[in-house]
């Protein structure tokens, strides 16, 4: 007897584990989901016999989830059991039955009762499937016998096949519509989710890269060990690059804006762009001779040009010319832009173009008109995110059958950009630290904390540790002498930014270095002037940051 799938839906991992322990005796496949969205994804991918749903969930309660499940033609008759941790009034029970539930289980759960209820519905599911198979077999026999006796049944069979195809098509269309709905719901929270993933992922990479670098320095020279170590470090660096792409998609990447000469940047990547678009197309540039520098992350702008060129290539087909132009725009700028000077970069193709409906959705993540396997729908969204995060914007102009122009508005780089000047001065005046410093490392992740302390010890400093911002303040208030504080930002209770603000108030001469796995930080004067490091950082970057802090202290003295 093959096991069937039982879906367990509850936002609390502990309760999911208890359901799993109780039901594992049944010998069925138990699939767990911590949210309505995750449950619906499992339903699209698997055939489910019984669904156990918690009534009270934060994002989407059980009633709403069951209503959505019942809308799917595949799960209109699936057995759904509600689990409630509170006393249910009769109207609530009626609401649950109207939504499509077949039974209720109250908390605290009696294991034997829950197993018995689930066993009944799983057996009912099996019997139903057996009956369906028998019915299908009977239909085949009737069809074969009817075909032998009546030649006219061929027309009826063709009609039935056509009807089945229509049903399959409508089912696929509905599944696609539901999948798009689920994707849209996921995108509503992608910023917060990506930030958390980036923080946790960067913490892991931080511990891995820091430990590998220290181990590499301490191991005796050996070609095989060196290759293995370099391979591990390269894999960790690729993980860090993947995190940056996720952050670019969510518009929370750690940008490094600087004054970029667009003419020089284009000349550097022109050969790469020509290789990307292929031999059948040409790329031409019209760049203003005295074009001012733009304030943008140069690496990300190169990636944006590559994405736009590939999109133009796909729209033009076999031949034509892609035009890349750039000029400071003195005419009327878009209303959404803040006052100031802007350079307008444009990539124009003469391809198939887009109608108004497609153009209106072109910058949406995951939206693409390309065929399967030919596009992710992320390229234009990432360019849009880069422009918005750089203080500019993206405009799209397209005519069906004529072509498309993507305009990228970027701010002109000011000569005296405060943050850039301060950073440049810190780099130019960096001094070597000639004595051991007492450095307080604040991070709630013990792996990152241990790795950072190990790097500091290897640099000859004396590290102190604190598992939270509150513990750090207690150490400082106890009179412990510290020269520098290196703190994570995203910590429970009190963030690193809040800790920096408290230290700036109570210990004004104590420098703070803020480490963060992603770019979203509060707009706080106490934080804006801090030296920041992006996780995962290397020992060399940590040493440079300490030297910058020492240089600033020397300058202040």
Query: In what order do the strands lie side by side in the largest sheet?
Result: 2-1-3-4-5
What is the CATH superfamily of the largest domain? Response regulator
Please give the CATH architecture of the largest domain.
Answer: 3-Layer(aba) Sandwich
Helix content: 40-55%
CATH class assignment of the largest domain? Alpha Beta
Name the assembly state: single chain
Instruction: Give the number of DSSP strands.
Output: 17
Count the domains. Answer: 4
Tell me briefly what this model is.
This protein has 557 residues and is α/β, with parallel strands linked by helices.
What order do the helices and strands come in, and which of them pair?
Blueprint: E1 5-9, H1 13-23, E2 29-33, H2 36-45, E3 48-54, H3 62-71, E4 79-84, H4 90-99, E5 103-106, H5 111-149, H6 153-188, H7 190-218, H8 223-249, E6 258-260, H9 262-277, E7 281-287, E8 294-296, H10 298-316, E9 320-328, E10 342-349, H11 356-361, H12 379-389, E11 393-399, E12 403-411, H13 418-428, E13 438-442, H14 446-458, E14 462-466, H15 469-477, E15 484-488, H16 496-506, E16 512-516, H17 525-528, E17 531-534, H18 539-556
Parallel strand pairs: 1-2, 1-3, 3-4, 4-5, 7-9, 13-14, 13-15, 15-16, 16-17
Antiparallel strand pairs: 6-8, 9-10, 10-12, 11-12
Helix pairs in contact: 2-6, 7-8, 7-14, 9-10, 10-12, 15-16
